[in-house]
Amino acid sequence: AQTVTQSQPEMSVQEAETVTLSCTYDTSESDYYLFWYKQPPSRQMILVIRQEAYKQQNATENRFSVNFQKAAKSFSLKISDSQLGDAAMYFCAYRSAISGGSNYKLTFGKGTLLTVNP
Amino acid sequence: NAGVMQNPRHLVRRRGQEARLRCSPMKGHSHVYWYRQLPEEGLKFMVYLQKENIIDESGMPKERFSAEFPKEGPSILRIQQVVRGDSAAYFCASSPQVGGNSPLHFGNGTRLTVT
Q: Which residues in chain B are closer than 8 Å to A10, comparing Cβ atoms?
């Protein structure tokens, strides 16, 4: 079974600075997807960024980028120019890409609570 | 295009009562998933349904919990004879297809409190 580990329960960053959230995962599969979701106090789960394991290039979405290290099974999220609105719980998630298996099921880490200080 | 709609947003039940949580997927989405989030935990998969079919209920407790996604109407997660340990946020998600790189679209969740 796949597991996702987020080793930082809480992180803080100054507004306009950069912060990196860590995520490691364990899997025996070679083809999969990785996601970062943001959960603000409103509780809504918002997709921040996703990465296909077969792609070597790291995904980027505006101020959000990932450092995907497949061999190390590491998938960290970097937030540049942090804004007050970035404050939220961030969840890393894994999904298999193997057809016919549980390729619909997301496995989440426990989350990292990010605080942005003005 | 309205997102995934869940109601109620908050639900309070006494021990032993029934809780009924509703989820309307996004338009055009025929795949529905329920996840549970316990305090200070990530979301955990409960069940995956397509119209009128339960595909995978491996994450759902065998007793007291049931889910359905009828041909017409929303998906329903039902918890009978609730206990304090059922207190959690329950999220519904939907997708237009299964697998691939299409992300799940989540609702805002229903927070169930059992007193």
A: none
